[in-house]
Design a protein that fits this description.
Elements lengths: L6 E4 L1 H4 L2 H11 L5 E5 H13 L9 H14 L4 E2 L17 H9 L4 E3 L8 H5 L4 E3 L1 H11 L1 H4 L1
Parallel strand pairs: 1-2, 1-4, 2-3, 4-5
Length: 151
């Protein structure tokens, strides 16, 4: 897939771990693809970090919100808005994930990057021309596409 034509939406669960969030942000800055997310996705990963048992006391919601704003500024046109009005006819195991599919359709994403592949049935998303990839597969595909840029 050519750069600027390939769009990935990051599910909140891949932005929750700080190290993976950092890696995915660095990948987004390579120009190999367009990374996208929504404010709802930001809210989910921030809430997950704040409610995680044993989370570090020096990590504050204010700091995480600042991080999300920096993400929005670093990756041009990453923040998808208006996705909540998109009507999508898919049957997901977890209805709370519908906003991800709506955002993927509205943001013209080719792939949803998520740890929860089972929550996004491939046969349902094929109709929308959207793939689902585990972050390991996503990064491996980027390495295949352009090893020098990824490294």
């Amino acid at each position: 897939m050519a750069s600027n034509n390939f769009t990935a939406i990051y599910d909140s669960n891949v932005l929750f771990p700080m190290i993976l969030r950092d890696l995915l942000m660095r990948m987004a800055l390579t120009g190999l693809f367009k990374a996208r997310w929504t404010q709802d996705i930001h809210d989910e990963w921030i809430r997950a970090v704040m409610t995680k048992e044993g989370h570090r006391p020096n990590v504050t919601e204010e700091g995480l919100r600042r991080c999300s704003k920096q993400m929005d500024q670093a990756v041009l046109d990453a923040l998808i808005e208006g996705h909540d009005i998109v009507s999508v006819n898919v049957d997901l195991p977890d209805k709370d994930d519908m906003h991800i599919v709506q955002a993927a359709v509205h943001g013209r994403a080719d792939v949803i990057v998520t740890f929860n592949e089972k929550d996004f049935p491939r046969e349902q998303l094929q109709v929308l021309n959207i793939e689902v990839q585990h972050p390991d597969e996503f990064v491996a595909n980027l390495l295949d596409l352009s090893p020098m840029k990824v490294c």
